[in-house]
Design a protein that fits this description.
The chain is about 15% helix and about 20% strand. It is of the alpha/beta class and about 200 residues long. Strand 1 and strand 2 form a beta hairpin.
């Protein structure tokens, strides 16, 4: 089972919704959660800018409204977008945080899951550097499982789903390349926490 270790120097693992092991880069794209929100859902995404190119700073720039829309033809398709995610995990496992988990990030868009709409209200968004449907790296699974375990210590997490599950037909990430069984086995969470059909019988 993945368990978060103690924060560096004995510091608290969480401070006002910011995780001690993440590089902090504050995004202006956030807002307050509803007063009655229960932060019980983790939504997983995949992202690369431009699609399939890894290692640059474009994702950080997108989430902080500093991306040069003219730098690549693809960027003109998303020009003016104001979006954010709580976390971003790079191919090597490096972890970034843009919005306090106590606040509402703008990652899920129009969405519905476990009988509730507006998933941004009560979810934590995690972006994995990758291509929709493609594979992810060992270091990303390790960072993700530790982060999920830490989130579950801080918030009443009972669900983890992909963007494709909260916005079916509109979104398809992280896609078929994401190994749900691997995350389930690392966390040892109940199978009911995961979307229907993503776990094999052995893993569930």
């Amino acid at each position: 089972m993945a368990t978060p270790v103690e924060a560096p120097g004995g510091a608290t693992l969480w401070q006002a919704g910011w995780y001690a092991y993440a590089h902090r880069l504050a995004s202006p794209n956030f807002g307050p959660r509803p007063a009655d929100a229960s932060i019980d859902l983790i939504v997983l995404h995949s992202i690369s800018l431009p699609p399939g190119r890894y290692g640059g700073q474009e994702v950080q720039q997108l989430f902080t409204n500093t991306l040069d829309w003219t730098a690549h033809p693809y960027f003109m398709q998303i020009a003016g977008a104001q979006v954010s995610s709580h976390f971003y995990i790079r191919r090597g496992g490096e972890l970034w945080q843009f919005v306090s988990c106590d606040d509402r990030a703008w990652h899920a868009g129009q969405s519905h899951y476990r009988g509730r709409g507006n998933c941004n209200d009560d979810s934590v968004g995690i972006e994995l550097e990758g291509l929709e449907g493609g594979p992810f790296e060992d270091a990303q699974y390790e960072a993700l499982s530790c982060l999920c375990a830490a989130l579950a210590q801080r918030y009443p997490i009972t669900h983890v789903a992909g963007h494709e599950h909260v916005a079916p037909g509109r979104k398809q990430d992280p896609g078929a390349g994401f190994a749900w069984n691997r995350l389930h086995n690392a966390l040892a969470w109940p199978g009911a926490y995961f979307p229907d059909g993503v776990l094999t019988q052995h893993s569930a």
